[in-house]
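Hey, quick one: can you model this chain's 3D structure?
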Amino acid sequence: MLTKGTKAPYFEGLDENGNPVKLTDFAGKKLVLYFYPKDSTPGCTAEACDLRDNYERFIALGYAIIGVSRDSAASHQRFIAKYNLPFHLIADTDLTILKSYEAWGEKKLYGKVSEGTLRTTYVIDEEGIIIEAINKVDTKNHTAQLL
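Sure thing. Here's the predicted structure for all 147 residues.
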């Protein structure tokens, strides 16, 4: 996991509409960059909806929010529409961003070991420096962890 004080790795990906999203798009803003395993699953939905419900608070404090998973753009479109999410989701189908942010790796679930997305959130400051790194995300109360 990347640590506080580290320069955030550059990323570039496509959002749910096929539009490019780059780290440099957020220069001068704080960015909540969160990585989650799968659209429309219980924990991922709880996390996205908590961020949605507190979105105006984030905006008022100068934050942007971007979610990243390996799901397709079409899956992201359905997820956004179903839960009325006000932020963009990057479709990282080739795992480039997930790996550069160390959000892809070995997971254990019910004793089974597999590779997958490690639920992780980074807060990046206006200068591109990671100021918070969370790998034990409370999906239902993620905003409280961040603010």
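One thing worth noting: The domain at 12-146 is CATH 3.40.30.10 (Glutaredoxin).
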